[in-house]
Amino acid sequence: MLILWRNKRYLTPLEIANLLGGVRTSLVRRGLWFFKKLNMLDIIDSPLKVKLKNSILNEVTNIVKDEILAFNGKHMVVRVGKNYYLITLRRKKIIVRVVEINVLNAVLKVLKEGVGEKYTVSDLANATLLPISKVTIAVKVLTLLDRIVKVGGKFKFSRAT
């Protein structure tokens, strides 16, 4: 949807797939079917080209304008309420993971207390008493937001922020 929102013109599924970094067109078509079912698209049939309706463009603009925090081509961090969403684009699928703000704060607190020290993900999980899966997502989000840096296989607090 964000690709359609940014371009504001008619696009084929192949163009959308290329803009998403090589995602398969079958995945794009599946997503477009869902938007078509919700009556969110203007469609030209031959060849198939789609565009978000103008009314939807305005709504998406209001929702998204301050919510996308980082995007590096394959990963996107979006904040909605008290949750951060890590969206990963793969060739065959799009993965969405959620991490709460309190998990991010707990990881940052441990890293700030040991400024200059390097921690592995398992070290951070043990120090915060949180599941390693949540800490892994938090570390990815914080890395994309440039709050922490990866040195070798370990992470440390970034003084730049």
What this model shows, in words?
This protein is an alpha+beta fold. The strands form three sheets. Strands 3-4-5-6 form a four-stranded antiparallel β-sheet. Helix 5 packs across helix 6 and helix 6 packs across helix 7. The radius of gyration is 19 Å and the shape is elongated. The mean pLDDT is 82.
Give the N-terminus to C-terminus distance in angstroms. 31 Å
Count of helical stretches: 7
Largest sheet: 4 strands, antiparallel
Task: List how many beta strands DSSP finds.
Answer: 8
The CATH topology of the largest domain corresponds to Arc Repressor Mutant, subunit A
How large is the share of residues in beta strands?
A: 15-25%
Largest beta sheet: strand ordering: 3-4-5-6
State the helicity in percent bands. 40-55%
Instruction: Please state the CA-atom Rg, rounded to the nearest Å.
Output: 19 Å
Overall average residue pLDDT: 82
Ranges where pLDDT stays below 50 over 5 or more residues in a row are none
Q: What is the H/E order?
A: HHHEEHEEEEHHHEE
> How many domains, in number, for the residues?
3
**General shape:** elongated
The CATH top-level class label of the largest domain: Mainly Alpha
* Classification by helices and strands: alpha+beta
CATH architecture identity of the largest domain? Orthogonal Bundle
